[in-house]
Task: inverse folding
């Protein structure tokens, strides 16, 4: 069902009668110590105007002009891939990224002059620091057992000083674009 | 008694009086798992472990040597809490075979209180999502309108309970959908979830159960796989507010392993039998009526606010002007913390590892591609973009400042004398999968988290309470929020609402 029409049908304010008597339709049950009034879905209006806003809150002024779309060039793509190492700096990943940036850009316009960053909601207290003593240990076997590949008592990792690059068509197309722009 | 529909207090009384045994309670819960297995509440049912724990609990009841408030009570735990010796996957291929060598503090406290763990529940991968449809272990489905037979008791109204046409189904919400579902279906009495942007309150709203996000720091995070360290909170599910309070009394409290956990005194927490609203000032923030909120949610919100006013609470409209920025702020802070936290998934120390030999970078990139789904990888990429030297001030620092503006909205409201905020939890009741899946994860999460996210920004306690049903037979819920640390008062108010709305109880046939 169309949400808007349903809203019109049901979203009428239940209380707009300042002088109506306070007699809600209710069934009454008695518990051991006190009476709890239970109200059915067909209750009559109660007294006083409701404090719940019956209309949605809409931001009054239109958002200011969005900043220009970021330049997603080969340099950026390669840098992000190197920092992320998730093999996602491809066409689809970058499209997602652009959508995320588009959303984040709405925050840039907000006036935060004089506002301190909030890093933790517990900033008003000193958090406990542990004493410098070993409480847990001797779990070498259990920890090594979690690893896929070990040798003797070592974790195993291939050589580190080699940059991961894949000659994908996406990277190649960006490279071509970059070269064309230079010409 | 309808065993699996009873409250924790009722079952405990039955166990103490030996009307029922812990073994019988456990068997009933495990049998119920078979009935609802197609809905997939669990990634890993722990039936053997449960039976052993139930047997031990039974012996304790026989000898009169009980260990805690949840002795013998079946509980479920979201699969992003480490459980020693038990598979913990976070719904991800990265951890498909991961068996933690330790248990989360909250797990140790639960088991120490005698709880019987019946399974690890399904979630959106690594807690990223609002539908529990992005798990690498399959999608969870809501019990409502699922085709499984149930009746709704405690109401004279007639609601549809049949399955939907064309094999459609209703989402559980997320990311803690499995935990919400396990409680809603009676496979557990209470459950643990995690709430970073609404991941406990959202599914509790859709599944018709109580979903509580404690104030940040009250419940320790050691052993909860990190998503956003500055916002993550272990969250609690139950069918009754009292059960959630009992669960809080077991898991809350400072933990030397978590330096962001704070001291609290909830061990003996008992809500008043009939809470009162005397002296309570309820704020209704106008910004929480977002475009797209369904009429039935507004109607429920209005009705409960009016009930509270009629009962003696002062109710007034308030303004929290930065509410609409919360989702965008979250989109930046979440991805930045994720980009940092997820550097740990390399395949070297634990988790999935691709068998490639050329280079460390290739190993990492290909392992992470194979192990992490696109939602996760997309957030890592975005986070690293926002954290680039050229971008950090513009995005990350700006978001931290906007976070303070959102936090200040709450401070202003509390300073003005308001002691509770009443808002919708979700804009609508649970969506059908056919419509929910039309939007991608990021867009859907942005829409669904609008009313829940700000509480994580400010670190305040928030609870979702089911208050009614709509014409489609789906639950409607409302959210209460309170100043940081006022969780007892928050739960008492939730219980007040619960006692007045007669939410129909789901009973599986």
Result:
């Amino acid at each position: 069902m169309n949400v808007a029409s349903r809203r019109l049908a049901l979203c009428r304010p239940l209380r707009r009668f300042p002088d109506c008597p306070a007699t809600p339709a209710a069934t009454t049950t008695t518990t051991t110590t006190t009476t709890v009034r239970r109200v059915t879905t067909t209750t009559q209006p109660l007294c006083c105007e409701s404090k719940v806003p019956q209309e949605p809150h809409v931001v009054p002024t239109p958002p200011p002009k969005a900043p220009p779309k970021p330049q997603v060039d080969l340099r950026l793509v390669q840098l992000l891939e190197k920092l992320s190492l998730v093999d996602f700096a491809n066409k689809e990943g970058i499209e997602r990224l652009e959508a995320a940036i588009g959303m984040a850009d709405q925050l840039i316009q907000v006036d935060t002059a004089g506002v301190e960053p909030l890093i933790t909601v517990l900033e008003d207290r000193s958090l406990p620091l542990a004493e410098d003593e070993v409480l847990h240990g001797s779990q070498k076997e259990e920890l090594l057992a979690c690893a896929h590949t070990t040798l003797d008592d070592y974790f195993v990792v291939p050589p580190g000083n080699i940059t991961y690059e894949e000659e994908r068509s996406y990277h190649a197309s960006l490279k071509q674009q970059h070269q064309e722009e230079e010409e | 008694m309808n065993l699996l529909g009873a409250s924790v207090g009722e079952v405990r009384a039955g166990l103490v009086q030996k009307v029922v045994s812990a073994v019988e309670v456990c068997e009933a819960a495990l049998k119920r798992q078979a009935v609802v297995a197609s809905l997939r509440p669990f990634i890993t049912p722990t039936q053997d472990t449960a039976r052993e724990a139930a047997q031990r609990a039974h012996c304790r009841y026989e000898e009169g040597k009980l260990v805690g408030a949840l002795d013998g009570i079946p509980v479920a735990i979201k699969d992003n809490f480490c459980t020693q010796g038990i598979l913990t996957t976070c719904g991800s291929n990265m951890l498909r075979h991961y068996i933690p060598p330790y248990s989360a503090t909250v797990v140790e406290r639960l088991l120490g209180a005698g709880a019987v763990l019946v399974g690890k529940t399904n979630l959106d991968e690594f807690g990223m999502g609002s539908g529990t449809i992005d798990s690498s272990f399959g999608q969870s489905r809501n019990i409502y309108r699922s085709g499984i037979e149930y009746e709704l008791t405690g109401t004279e109204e007639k609601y549809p309970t049949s399955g939907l046409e064309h094999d459609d189904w209703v989402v559980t919400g997320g990311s803690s959908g499995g935990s919400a579902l396990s409680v809603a279906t009676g496979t557990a009495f209470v459950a643990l979830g995690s709430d970073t942007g609404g991941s406990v309150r959202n599914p509790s709203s859709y599944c018709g159960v109580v979903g509580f996000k404690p104030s940040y720091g009250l419940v320790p995070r050691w052993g909860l796989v990190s998503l956003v360290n500055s916002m993550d909170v272990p969250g609690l599910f139950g069918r009754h507010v009292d059960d959630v309070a009992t669960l809080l009394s077991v898991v809350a409290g400072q933990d030397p392993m978590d330096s962001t956990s704070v001291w609290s005194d909830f061990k003996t927490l008992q809500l008043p039998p009939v809470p009162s609203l005397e002296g309570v000032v309820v704020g209704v923030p106008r910004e929480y009526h977002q475009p797209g909120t369904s009429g039935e949610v507004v109607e429920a919100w209005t009705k409960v606010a009016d009930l509270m006013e009629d009962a003696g609470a002062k109710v007034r409209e308030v303004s929290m002007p930065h509410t609409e920025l919360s989702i965008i702020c979250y989109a930046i802070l979440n991805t930045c913390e994720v980009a940092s936290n997820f550097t740990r998934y390399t395949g070297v120390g634990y988790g999935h590892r691709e068998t490639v030999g050329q280079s460390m970078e290739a190993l990492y990139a290909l392992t992470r591609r194979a192990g992490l789904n696109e939602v996760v990888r997309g957030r890592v990429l975005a986070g690293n973009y926002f954290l680039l030297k050229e971008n950090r001030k513009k995005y990350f620092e700006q978001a931290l400042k906007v976070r303070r503006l959102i936090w200040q909205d709450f401070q202003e409201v509390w300073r003005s004398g308001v002691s509770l905020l009443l808002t919708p939890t979700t804009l609508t009741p649970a969506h059908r999968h056919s419509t929910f899946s039309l939007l991608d994860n990021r867009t859907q999460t942005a829409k669904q988290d609008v009313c829940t996210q700000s509480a994580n920004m400010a670190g305040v306690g928030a609870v979702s309470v089911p208050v009614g049903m709509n014409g489609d037979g789906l639950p409607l819920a409302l959210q209460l929020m309170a100043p940081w640390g006022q969780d007892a008062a928050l739960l008492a108010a939730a219980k007040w609402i619960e006692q007045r709305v007669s939410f129909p109880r789901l009973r599986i046939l």
In short: Residues 209 and 239 of chain B are 5 Å apart (CA to CA). Chain B has 16 helices and 13 strands. Chain B touches chain A through 103 residues (CB under 8 Å). Residues 393-415 of chain B form the longest helix (23 residues).
